[in-house]
Design goal:
It contains twelve helices and no strands. By secondary structure, it is mainly alpha-helical. Helix 10 runs antiparallel to helix 11.
Length: about 270
């Protein structure tokens, strides 16, 4: 992999990880389009670190709250249930933990079968169209709650949406925001919880990649790794800021048009 290819994949990862257009689907498509053999696990780990840094930078106050809540629960384990009920930070932390469980279960049970789908551009195209319909329906949903954090039931169901989005072409952020909207959350509350829920998801991907890396990985130059890290971190930060602004203004439906267009083009190209 060249430095320029690393920058390209880093930009794609940073942008599509947080925009509701499916990062996995776009990486599959761009890798095939430009004949990039992105087989290095250490590069995959590096760009995931970049996107993780982007989330931590944008949501640093929420991350600090979660850390404080974590140590609060550690110090007072006997009062954990009461703290989750009464403390907003502890409730948010419990929601993120609960919302992460479905994706972990799916990844452990269906990992090999799902990985086979990453070689199918047709499947990616179909799921991009599905993503478009999900986003369109979410934008038409009427919120029943304003400025509230998700309940534990909300968090679990949003986590189920995240688990489904392991499929290439189905957007993680789009699906989780949509489930939050269907549960009655306002746009910003659903989006912020979706991004915070990405933190353990990205960490989980890092752990799995590192475990595979220990089994042996192709050597990659430091320049390639640095290029991937910086490009994914910078574009990820900008993508989150940009997307939150669009969500506040009710522009989520724009991405449904994009995913429909790309999905149709991909399917047509595959069939032809």
């Amino acid at each position: 992999m060249t430095v320029y290819q690393a920058i390209l994949l880093g930009i794609i990862q940073g942008l599509t990880e947080f925009l509701p257009v499916s990062s996995s689907g776009h990486l599959v498509l761009f890798s095939q389009l430009f004949a990039i053999q992105e087989s290095s696990l250490i590069f995959e780990v590096t760009v995931h670190v970049g996107t993780l840094l982007a989330v931590l930078a944008v949501f640093k106050s929420e991350v600090q709250l979660l850390l404080v809540s974590f140590f609060k629960l550690i110090r007072r384990p006997q009062q954990a249930r009461e703290l989750v009920r009464q403390d907003a930070g502890c409730r948010l932390l419990a929601g993120i933990v609960l919302g992460t469980i479905p994706a972990v279960a799916v990844a452990l049970v269906l990992k090999d079968r799902i990985e086979q789908l990453f070689s199918s551009s047709l499947f990616v195209g179909v799921m991009l169209i599905v993503t478009g319909f999900i986003l369109y329906a979410a934008e038409r949903s009427v919120p029943r709650r304003t400025g509230s954090s998700p309940s534990l039931v909300d968090a679990f169901l949003i986590g189920c949406g995240q688990a489904a989005a392991i499929l290439p072409g189905l957007s993680r952020s789009g699906t989780t925001i949509a489930v939050g909207r269907f549960r009655g959350l306002d746009r910003e509350s659903a989006a912020r919880f979706s991004f915070l829920l990405a933190v353990p998801a990205i960490l989980g991907a890092l752990v799995l990649s590192l475990l595979d890396l220990l089994a042996g990985a192709t050597a990659v130059s430091g320049a390639v790794l640095l290029a991937g890290l910086i490009s994914s971190a910078v574009t990820g930060y900008l993508a989150i800021r940009f997307f939150l602004g669009l969500v506040r203004r009710g522009r989520l439906v724009w991405f449904s048009y994009y995913t429909w267009l790309i999905g149709v083009v991909v399917i047509a190209a595959h069939l032809l």
